[in-house]
Design goal:
The protein has 390 residues and is α/β, with parallel strands linked by helices. The protein has 2 domains: 266 residues, Rossmann fold (3-Layer(aba) Sandwich), CATH 3.40.50; 89 residues, no CATH class. The chain is 23% helix and 24% strand. It contains 11 helices and 16 strands. It is globular and about 65 Å long. The two termini are 20 Å apart. The relative contact order is 0.13. The N terminus and C terminus are likely disordered.
């Protein structure tokens, strides 16, 4: 399984880069006004092997004016995920990040969150790697006075897509989530709203997390129906979604969303017992094995055969390796049922276990059906939304 096959972002890249994916220009922001602190930092407090494995370590940090006034006070933390850079050839920079979404609202529009804000800078191109976001959050929690029960998440455009990914991956971690001009990444990329049955119970773990979704009705980069679809998945699972629409385009949604009202709402949310656990697998032993992947992204397209292997890891994660891998195994996080998410937000469904052996039979991703070499040696090439051999 070649990395370029699994992690292709060409359509998403073209869509989001065309509009910049941010709430302001790519020029450096004006100096921060007196009364708050805005600094460029990077992960330093984690174990050395974790830091060495990160390709994205930098983040922008906002501290409110009175952060040092009370040594005993614990502060809310808002995690902001930025949009894409203006062009595929231009890497996202700290100067761009200062002018993106919530950070632009702070540096240019007078928004003053009564919270610490961390904005990780992605060095992964047009994705956020899950481990890099986690590292930035943990680093800030280790260095500053963060209330672990008031950690919220928001993002703009590409960052909003990844806010959905991160919240599914850590459904018990965030006190609130506010995606702005984003939806499910594969749906935005492929312009296809996948069969709701694919998701199974993945959204049920998010039912206790309040969501506030912002989207423009004239958004052509991420059409509003894709945001409405993911919101409907959460609502159907028992979740609460405050969906806010405006007659604006993709970038215009940033000005509509990133206001003092949103900052105050995120800061006010509280989650007792918040933690970074993933939904546990009922039987982790049924998933490990080797699977043959057949790439069938579009009818008539060439088929690329490769193999992947799922290895035992923990009660809520698997390790994945395979043919053509660039480096060591990556972690797959359990989302519920037999759904998993990789570090880049790709979601897969490992299908029904064989009745006699209890082993999984097939591997099925949102854009790549795959055939498992399990006890029954499944045959055929289904196309979503057909359930196929899974």
């Amino acid at each position: 399984m070649k990395c370029v096959t699994r992690w292709s972002t060409l359509v998403l890249l073209a869509v989001l880069a065309a509009c910049g994916g941010s709430g302001g220009s790519s020029n450096p922001a004006a100096p921060a006004a007196a009364g708050f602190t805005l600094t460029e930092s990077q992960v330093t407090t984690l174990p050395k092997d974790e830091i060495a494995a990160l390709t994205s370590k930098e983040y922008l940090l906002y501290l409110p004016a009175d952060y040092k006034a009370d040594e005993d006070k614990k502060w809310p933390l808002i995690v902001f995920l930025h949009g894409s850079s203006p062009s595929p050839e231009q890497e996202k920079t700290m100067a761009m990040l200062r002018n993106d979404g919530l950070m632009y609202a702070i540096t240019q529009s007078g928004v003053r969150p009564a919270a610490i804000v961390v904005a990780p800078l992605s060095k992964e191109g047009y994705v956020f790697r899950r481990e890099a976001v986690d590292a930035a959050i943990r680093d800030v929690q280790a260095r500053y006075k963060v209330d672990p029960n008031r950690v919220s998440l928001t993002g703009m455009s590409l960052g909003a897509i990844n806010a959905w990914n991160m919240s599914l991956s850590w459904p018990y971690r965030f006190s609130a989530v506010a995606p702005v001009a984003g939806a499910l990444d594969k749906e935005v990329r492929d312009r296809y709203r996948y069969d709701n049955a694919f998701w199974g119970d993945a959204f049920k773990a998010l039912a206790a997390t309040p969501f506030r979704v912002f989207h423009g009705s004239r958004d052509t980069a991420v059409p509003i129906e894709y945001a409405e679809h993911v919101a409907s998945l959460l609502t159907a699972a028992g979740g609460t979604v405050d969906f806010r629409r405006a007659a604006t385009d993709h970038i215009g949604t940033a000005g509509f969303a990133f206001t003092q009202e949103l900052a105050d709402w995120l800061t006010a949310q509280h989650r007792d017992g918040a933690n970074s656990d993933h939904p546990p697998m009922s039987d982790p032993t049924q998933y490990p094995g080797r699977y043959l992947e057949l790439s069938m992204e579009r009818p008539g397209s060439p088929v690329y055969d490769s193999w992947i292997e799922l290895l035992p890891d923990t009660a809520s994660t698997l390790k994945e390796t395979g043919e053509g891998w660039r480096g060591g195994p990556q972690t797959l996080v359990h989302l519920g049922d037999s759904r998993f998410m990789d570090p880049f937000g790709n979601v897969m469904w490992v299908g029904k276990p064989d009745a006699s052996t209890g082993q999984m039979q097939c591997w099925y991703t949102m854009h790549d059906p795959a055939i498992g070499l399990g006890a029954n040696r499944i045959q055929g090439y289904p196309r979503l939304p057909a359930r196929g051999p899974c």
